[in-house]
Amino acid sequence: MRIVFKTDYMQDIRPWKDGFQLSLYMLLLALAVVAPFLLDTFYIGELTNVLIWAIAGLGLMVLTGHTGQASLGHAAFLAFGCYANIILIEQGIPFLIAFPVAGILTGIVGAVIAIPALRLHGVYLAIFTLALSILTDDLIVLSEPLTGGVAGKYAPPVGVFGLQIDRWGTPDLFYWLTLAVVVLVTLGYINLLRTPLGRSFIAVRDSEVSAQAMGVDIARTKTVSFGVSCMVTGWAGALMGLYAVAFNNETFSVVISIQLLMMIVIGGLGSIHGAFFGAVVIGFLPQFLSISKEYVGAVFGGGSVAIPGLEFGIFGMILILFILFEPMGIYGRWLKIRTYFELFPFYRKDMFKRQKSYLKTERLR
């Protein structure tokens, strides 16, 4: 049985529980840094894709996981961040300026959209954001002088501190650039949740009536949450455009929005770790299925058979299984395993048993 004795107020302020947990995070970061020396180019590209999905998951987690506002339209903000970044670079603005500005512009647009959108609740908010994602496809085509329309745009190599970074030409440098963004966004997210604003997000998610009784401005909190969520999502979209190199209106379809929501549910709603666990699933599942089909074809004879919709079918099945048997997601399951070993032999199954009844305060109208 492992117990942490707190002897300093700083132990309540710092983001890690103890030195052991910090050492695990530092070890994980060290492995991520040296990954390009251990893996080949293909797997470095796949790992980069996972990191980009993790940033997008963190963006949606702010809104859905920690503020309780469902969104099916974040593909629109991925697209906005992607196009804003490339357009700014084409105007001669350096990447180190264009990239953060693209995210900030996406956040501003998201906050403006949130003013009327967050008057809606539950499924109506989800429908509104879904319609926004569908409408973005048409807006990209109609804004052909800026976006290139159906033909799309091409992402040029970007310069960072004198280095030319290209997805195909220098995959290692592009991976390290993405990793740096992931680390900065994650550290910012951790510190945001420890601020009064971050605690307001969680209060609104748990009970709007109780949050207002404690002096939380519900409308302001939701709007800021939507803006921060869109800003982080915009940065993910900017990296996604550089990763894809060539993109158009079909790149950021409504399917991306659904995948994002499913990703954070599978990973674990309301946790930063959940965004990363979900990104691993959504990033590596297509490659796992591809390798599995080739293996099955080699064992049983015949070539690899393409089955339309197999990826989304399996992903949907995984989501259903998690909703039925593990609603806390992958991170929730890991918490149970960790708690088992920390409290052994005093662990009991009922510690994580879902309650039969609970107090539910009605949302504000």
From TrEMBL:
Cellular localization per UniProt: Cell membrane
Superkingdom classification of source: Bacteria
Membrane-spanning segments: 20-38, 44-63, 70-89, 95-115, 122-142, 173-192, 224-246, 252-285, 297-325
CDD domains attached to this UniProt entry: TM_PBP1_LivM_like (cd06581)
The keyword Membrane is assigned to this record: yes
InterPro entries the record matches: ABC_transp_permease (IPR001851), LivM-like (IPR043428)
Pfam families, per database record: BPD_transp_2
Keywords carried by this UniProt record: Cell membrane, Membrane, Transmembrane, Transmembrane helix
Membrane topology classification: Multi-pass membrane protein
Principal cellular location given in the protein's record: membrane
UniProt name for this protein: Branched-chain amino acid ABC transporter permease
Protein species of origin: Lutimaribacter marinistellae
